Amino acid sequence: MNSQSRAAARIGGWSLIAAAVGFMAVFSYLAVRFNYPDVLDGAAATVLPRLLELGATGRGVWALYALLPLLLIPAGIGAHAAWRHVAPEATRSALVLAVVTAIAMLLGLARWPTIHWELARAYTSGSPTAREAIASVFLGLNVYLGNFIGEFLGELTLNAFFLMTAVALLQAGRRAAGRVGVAVAILGFLAGLRNVTTAVSLVAEVNNYVLPLWLIVLGVLMLRTRSTA
Length: 229
Hints:
The chain is mainly alpha-helical. The protein has ten helices and no strands.
């Protein structure tokens, strides 16, 4: 591995670690202040006023949350740089999947500090008729940008990214890490069915803890590639 590839792998590794730490910090803040993620199933009459109550700090946290998925792009580049010599096809796929994931999750999360924020402002001063219209827009955006783009597409491609990096790890001789990566991907695929059936609710909760841990582990594996390449 040349110096450029090592640098890309290191940047990718640190990007995954930063994404994991940022995710845990933001998730914890919103869980306490906004009852996240349960609040996502709430009606506009409940959710929009609570959104405004977060104030400028809360809006900034939502903006940070929306930007965190962009760290997957250097992570995808890092994965390609780290293991392309043993798994060129898998790492190319991982890179493409990382970019798609970053865009999908950005679109899904960015609705909160932008469109939803303006809807919340309009809702508080709107007439009953206006509030009904705002509630319909709010619901539609949650289904389209939230459930479909951000969660379904974003999580589908994220777990496919995990699967491709696991394949690369297996081909690089990191069998234990590769097998864990496959298991994490399968867990994520199952958790993604939470909008279809409540039977995977427990799986989804477990996945919320496994996800940042695996991001850190995968990041460390990229950082240690120099000694194993």
